[in-house]
Amino acid sequence: MSSEPRRALLASPTQAARAAEERLRGAYDFVPVDQAEMIIALGGDGFMLQTLHAMLESRRTVPVFGMNLGTVGFLMNEWRLERLEQRIEAAKSFKVTPLRMTVDTIDGERFSIPAINEVSLLRETRQTAKLEVQVNGRPVLPELVCDGVLVATSAGSTAYNLSAHGPILPLGSGLVALTPISPFRPRRWRGAILPENTIIKFTVLDAVKRPVSAVADQREVRDVAQVEVQIDRATPLTLLFDPEHTLDDRIAAEQFIA
Fold first, then answer.
1. Cα distance between residue 223 and residue 117, in whole Å
2. What are the residue ranges spanned by the domains of the chain?
3. Using CB atoms within 10 A of its CB, is residue 256 exposed (0-12), middle (13-18) or buried (19+)?
4. Beta strands in the chain (DSSP E)
5. Where in the sequence numbering do the catalytic residues fall?
6. pLDDT tens across 53-76, in order?
7. Is 211 exposed, middle or buried (0-12, 13-18, 19+ CB in 10 A)?
């Protein structure tokens, strides 16, 4: 009787991913997702995030081994048909702990949404956003005037956070990045690096005149009044990587790219 884990196969709707899926199904056995002990994901970083979010919503998480058939593939391994069992057996696992965004809108609605890379607050109109920022219940910025602000995990620190000139955080550092997007006041503030057990709260000042949206990875809530962000330790995720090209190596290497 085989001791190999029961694997499910998921593919993005692109032509390249679908072609790779057909070749894998012809060479290996797979089971439905709800019976799987691990998932093979074919696509790019966006499809990997989609796969991880689907697991968070189902509250059933299993390790994911991604193979890149997208553009960047930062969260993915190289696509290869051969030696899949050996690659999985040798793979190095990394725990990724998502953020949890709790949002109250100006209409009184409340949403709770996970984010694997970052939570972003963004102005909705030409008017700059005005935000009060609290850390663990203490106001640290009574008024931040900006295009937006984000909170990024170490896994997401090389994505939108890096484009906004935020810091790269080593995987396993136990830190999150608080990074402004085009700050106007205070002009010299460039963000903060905080322990990952920090609770960060944003209050939108003049929310009707200066509307703000909140985005957890790819899910957006508009016209927000308050947003609270903290690490969600109840739902850790596991990514699998080839040992010669692991996630922590990729994040560290980003610091030396000009």
1. 22
2. 7-96+235-256, 99-231
3. exposed
4. 7-11, 38-43, 64-68, 92-96, 99-105, 110-115, 118-123, 129-135, 138-152, 175-185, 192-195, 200-204, 212-216, 219-221, 224-231, 237-241
5. 45
6. 999 988 889 999 999 999 888 899
7. middle
In this prediction, residues 207-222 reach a mean pLDDT of 96
Per DSSP, the chain holds a count of helices (H) and strands (E) of 5, 16
Q: Which residue matches tokens 């739902």?
A: 235
Our CA angle for 229, 247, 7, nearest 5°, is: 95
Which CATH number does 7-96+235-256 carry? Answer: 3.40.50.10330
- Selected from 3.40.50.300, 3.30.200.20, 2.60.200.30, 3.40.50.920, the CATH number assigned to the domain covering 99-231 reads 2.60.200.30
Query: Pairing state of beta strands 64-68 and 38-43?
Result: parallel
Give the number of residues written for the chain. 258
CA-nearest of 55, 110, 61, 103 to 202 is 103
pTM: 0.89
- Who's near 48: CB < 8 A, 6+ residues apart? 41, 64, 66, 75, 76
